[in-house]
Amino acid sequence: MAGDYAFDTTENELVEIQTGEADVLLPNEHEWQTFTKGTSFEVPKNSSFKLQVKEVIDYCCSY
User: So where are the chain's domains?
Assistant: First the structure.
């Protein structure tokens, strides 16, 4: 669903984009990065990250 989201992590997290794309602000970063189908990013435990989604995406989070 389109929108702006913020997520907190309690474990290391791998996020894999299955379809669509999202702009992501990773912990300790100042610039947004775009991730698309077939790409992934990692987020360390006990941190947070932000997503900006413009259209429906499908992603998988592994802990």
Answer: 3-58
**pLDDT block averages, 10 residues each, the chain of length 63:** 94 97 97 98 97 94 94
Q: Is the pTM of this model over 0.70?
A: yes
Which CATH superfamily does the domain covering 3-58 fall into? Jelly Rolls (2.60.120.10)
Residue 42 CA: distances (Å) to CA of 20, 37, 39, 52 = 18, 15, 11, 16
Distance CA 28, CA 62 (A): 21
> Is residue 1 a contact partner of residue 54, using CB atoms and an 8 Å limit?
no
Distance CA 28, CA 17 (A): 21
